[in-house]
Design a protein that fits this description.
Blueprint: E1 22-32, H1 42-45, E2 61-69, E3 73-77, E4 86-93, E5 97-109, E6 113-115, E7 122-124, E8 127-134, H2 137-146
Length: 150
């Protein structure tokens, strides 16, 4: 069982998140896609640095479940991918339609976890958090419209 930490609500969600979340259970296909090479002028190449995608799972494609979603990213319930993996995610949002997004694995939960709460234990599945790099603007707007206002 995970220790109860301050800053979490009764559903085990961090209260520090910047974007409101939509709780969904949408089947998805995730693929580890890596990133393209950049051809830089030698003068720029000498001083330029960027985050490099983890390539250890490159080309792996597997089913998963989107558990929660915001305009900025999603929690994906599946076998966790390595941090900094670049992924393509395909899923559907009821009433919105098909979504094709690209993002980066920013955090992972390596095992299922249970948090105590006043309403009984909250079970959190293993998986990983993806920060969207690319998602169509109309999909972001639709997600924003669906997220409950607090």
């Amino acid at each position: 069982m995970c220790p109860l930490e301050r800053g979490y609500d009764n559903d085990g969600m961090s209260e520090l998140r910047r974007a409101a979340r939509l709780v969904i259970n949408a089947p998805a296909i995730v693929e580890s896609i890596g990133q393209g090479e950049m051809q830089l002028h030698p003068n720029l190449a000498a001083v330029f640095r960027r985050v490099e995608a983890n390539l250890s799972t490159l080309g792996q494609r597997f089913p998963a479940v989107i558990r929660d979603l915001s305009t900025n990213g999603a929690f994906i319930s599946a076998e966790p991918l390595p941090l900094m993996s670049r992924v393509a995610v395909k899923f559907e949002i009821k009433g919105v339609g098909a979504v094709d997004a690209v993002g980066w694995v920013m955090w992972q939960r390596t095992e299922d976890c249970e948090l105590p709460s006043p309403n009984g234990p909250v079970k959190l599945p293993k998986g990983f958090g993806v920060l969207f790099e690319s998602i169509p603007l109309e999909i972001r707007a639709a997600i924003a419209a669906l997220v409950p206002r607090t």
